[in-house]
Amino acid sequence: MTSVTVRFASSNEGVLLHNLAQASGKWEITEMDWTFDPYPYWLVAEIDSVPVGCVQAIPGVPFGHIEYLCVVPTLSPKDKAVVARDLCEQARGNCRKVGAQFVSFTLQPNSEGWERVLENRGAGVWFEGGTTMIMRA
Please, what sign has the CA dihedral across residues 105, 108, 1, 9? Predict the structure, then answer.
């Protein structure tokens, strides 16, 4: 099984997050200044010291939020699932540490696979529209 390391993004890695977002094909905001300091809100996943994914964790009380999950598409389906799981579990733990009782996820259209993964981990649909999922932190 592939070993994934999840760590906080360091202060000079805003551009790395942009590159991961572009590679994943998830979203692009051309007007954004990607030289921001992402610490402590962004996590980076690495396989063999190569960045392969990222996610934003927004701690809060009583709700934390996990947003903008990006995983590079060149990974195998199994590795993508492990990276996504490990990123989100670390983000969930970070939210829990500051007192979040629940964490929410906003899912993009056509995210049925990810929705099933979250449901299998105890999440449920909170409200529909953009499909925001919620689960205990």
Answer: negative
Structure tokens of 127? 């409200």
Buried b / exposed e over 53-70, threshold 16 CB at 10 Å, is bbbbbbbeeeebbbebbb
- Which among 74, 84, 11, 19 has a CA at the least distance from the CA of 45? 84
Task: Give this prediction's pTM.
Answer: 0.86
Residues 6+ apart with CB under 8 A from 13: 38, 42, 44
User: Consecutive 10-residue runs of the chain (137 residues): their mean pLDDT?
Assistant: 91 93 77 88 97 95 91 92 92 95 80 75 75 66
Measured N-to-C along each axis, helices 112-120 and 77-97 cross at an angle, to the nearest 10 degrees, of 50
- Cβ neighbors of 71 (< 8 A, separation 6 or more) are 24, 45, 52, 53, 80, 83, 84, 87
Nearest alpha-carbon partner for 36 in 51, 19, 15: 15
